[in-house]
Design goal:
With 358 residues, the protein is an alpha+beta fold. The protein has eleven helices and twelve strands. A five-stranded antiparallel beta sheet has the order 7-6-5-4-8. Strands 10-11-9-12 form a four-stranded antiparallel beta sheet. A hairpin with a 2-residue loop joins strand 10 and strand 11.
């Protein structure tokens, strides 16, 4: 029979592996009698583990949730996964970096040397995006997540992206928003609440760092069907400026005087067809016709617009605007690009309108 301490750790590991354990099966797995299992369960309870008795023909046990967090037992893969998750917490924008660092240090101290070496090989540096908004408060994220899970109407104050020029006329400020929260999502280091706006009767995405929840929450609701069916597809479509179908609202076709191999490197989700050694067809989408024309123009090559007419009109519009912008300047040669090949266009999503509700 193993020593009591080792047997308790083995029992705890088994209880964490599945929800319900029949008493005789536990006794068989540990190589002890059912009476010994009962005594070991009592010892775990004394240590703070909420082991519940399960009624039934054979009787059994279940590891429940307690009021305090007792010591946990992880296998090798779980311990490494936990450490990796804590190390990259700084990239989530959830405002839990300091707590994650403390938790990582606690986990690392009790790790065996073989696991500590695996974790230490992963070195991550969080690089914030230029001009990124303040991080979301972890308490706010918990409140939003709780409302999503409970399916309760949520009320909150929402700070606009840009203060109104006519602000101050209403000392009380705008009324709180009333929404049916659907999903809490993270994208690009920012957190968003996807919700049905009850007053505007439409779907909205709200920046979590601009939300100040009000209590109490409202009545429970039956969730509506999200456009597109999947929240990831819906959010991606909103950043593209579409209504949730998942497609770009504007899509056009051009012919570029560049090799297809060079264009393909920067075409993102576009479709490139080779027409010759230095000529290709590009089908690309964007959130507006002007944005699509500007994105194609970044290739810095001869362009032939195949269609539709809206794209041709957008090129003409930008041409007039660029001509006016350069008319007051003395003519100067355009400096060459610091690299070979076409100028890489930015991700069209970077040029898309903000998905959050204004």
């Amino acid at each position: 029979m193993p020593k009591t301490s080792a047997r308790l750790l083995a029992l705890l590991s088994l209880l964490q592996a599945r929800r319900d354990w029949p008493g005789p099966l536990l006794a068989d797995r540990l190589g002890v009698s059912p009476r010994t299992v009962r005594r070991d369960v009592d010892r775990l309870r004394e240590l703070g583990y909420p082991v519940e008795a399960v009624k039934g023909p054979d009787g059994g046990y279940r590891l429940g949730a307690g009021t305090d967090l007792p010591p946990l037992l992880f296998d090798d893969e779980q311990a490494v996964a936990l450490a990796v998750a804590l190390r990259i917490a700084a990239t989530t924008g959830a405002g839990t970096e300091e707590a994650a660092a403390r938790a990582l240090n606690t986990v690392r101290q009790v790790m065996p040397a073989r696991l500590r070496h695996r974790v230490d090989t992963l070195q991550v540096t969080a690089v914030e995006r230029a001009g990124s908004a303040p991080q979301a408060d972890s308490g706010v994220l918990m409140t939003l997540s709780g409302a999503v899970r409970a399916r309760e109407v949520l009320r909150f104050d929402y700070t606009p992206a840009f203060p109104s020029e006519h602000g101050g006329q209403d000392p009380a400020g705008p009324p709180p928003r009333r929404v049916e929260p659907h999903h809490l999502v993270t994208r690009g280091g920012r957190w968003y609440l996807v919700a049905w706006d009850l007053d505007r009767e439409d779907w909205r995405t709200f920046r979590a760092d601009r939300i100040t929840p009000r209590t109490p929450t409202g009545p429970r609701f039956t969730p509506r069907e999200l456009p597109g069916g999947e929240v990831s597809r819906f959010v991606a479509a909103r950043f593209r400026g579409s209504d949730g179908s998942g497609e770009w609202p504007c899509r056009g076709e051009v012919i570029l005087d560049l090799p297809a191999a060079e264009v393909s490197r920067y075409a993102r989700d576009g479709v490139v067809e080779e027409l010759g050694p230095d000529r290709c067809r590009l089908t690309l989408g964007a959130w507006s016709w002007a944005a699509l024309a500007a994105t194609v123009g970044l290739f810095d090559a001869g362009i032939e617009v195949v269609g539709p007419p809206e794209l041709k009109a957008a090129f003409a519009h930008l041409g007039r605007r660029y001509t006016a912008a350069g008319a007051a300047l003395p003519p100067t040669p355009v400096p060459p690009a610091p690299h070979s090949g076409p100028t890489p266009p930015r991700n069209s999503l970077d040029n898309s309108p903000a998905a959050d509700d204004r």
